[in-house]
Structures are given as C-alpha cells and as structure tokens.
Amino acid sequence: MGSRHISVTSEVESEAVVGYSEDVIMDARNFVGQYYQEFENTEENQLIYMSTFNESTSRGGGWGCAPQAVRIHCVSAFKDMLLDYRAEEEGQGLDINSGSVVTS
Predict the structure, then answer these.
(1) Which CATH number belongs to the domain containing residue 81 in this structure?
(2) Domain annotation covers residue 101
(3) Which of 60, 1, 3 is nearest to 31 (CA)?
(4) How far apart are CA 9 and CA 62, in angstroms?
(5) Could you tell me the residue range of the domain that residue 84 belongs to?
(6) Would 75 be classed as within a structural domain?
(7) Is 80 within the bounds of a domain?
(8) Contact between residue 75 and residue 50 where contact means Cβ atoms under 8 Å apart
(9) Residue 44 in domain
(10) Contacts (Cβ under 8 Å, ≥6 apart) of 35
(11) What is the mean pLDDT of the chain?
(12) What CA–CA distance (Å, rounded) separates 71 from 12?
C-alpha cells in the first residue's frame, strides 16, 4: 500500500510541476508577444530594450545577470531572442524543411 501512495504522490507532484511549467511558458509567450515589435535588427540599442529586459527579469525571466559586463551580454541575448520571435511571427524564420539533404 505504501508504494501506491508514493506513486500517487509522485503523479500529483509531476502534474503540479507540468502545470507550473505551462503557466511560466504561457506567461513568457504573452510577454514576448507583447513586446517583440519594439525590437529591430540594427546595431543601435534603444532605451526600450533595457526597460523591457528589466521588466522581464522583474517578472522572473530568469536571466540572472548581476555584474554590468554580464548584464550587457544578457540584454544582447534577450534582444536576439525577441528578434528571432519577430522573424518567426513575420514569416521570416528559419525553415528547416527547405534545407539541403545530405545522403551517404
């Protein structure tokens, strides 16, 4: 009987983790969907990038950037992520189905 209880507990815990993960993913998708159009593929960084990045980290974005040099790298990676999302939304994303096929 004890092993059945452990199994049920594990199943309930697993469902809770999956549910929490789904909530985090949906929140992230909503956040990115709200801001991706603000980001442009240029060398110039706009003030909106930093404020959007700061909002993301305050919402638990998980970027974990403390020192200034690391923080600059994190903002750059964040910008790249939003640019990738924007390209996909605008139909310009990478199409893996159109690539070359290598046969041996």
Answers:
(1) 1.20.1520
(2) no
(3) 60
(4) 28
(5) 2-92
(6) yes
(7) yes
(8) yes
(9) yes
(10) 52, 82
(11) 78
(12) 38
Q: Can you give the C-alpha Rg of the chain in angstroms?
A: 20
Amino acid at 70: V
Alpha-carbon distance of 55 to 51, in angstroms, equals 6
- How many domains does the structure of the chain reveal? 1
Band of the pLDDT at 84, cuts 50, 70, 90?
Answer: very high
Tokens found for residue 38: 């603000």
Distance CA 95, CA 103 (A): 20
Helix extents (H) in the chain = 2-35, 47-58, 68-89
The whole-model pTM stands at 0.61
**In this structure, what token pair is assigned to residue 3?**
């092993």
Amino acid at 52: T
- The string of pLDDT tens digits covering residues 18-43 is 888 888 888 888 888 999 998 988 88
**Amino acid (one-letter) located at 51:** S
pLDDT at 20: 87
Q: Are 75 and 49 in contact (CB under 8 A)?
A: yes
Q: Is 83 exposed, middle or buried (0-12, 13-18, 19+ CB in 10 A)?
A: middle
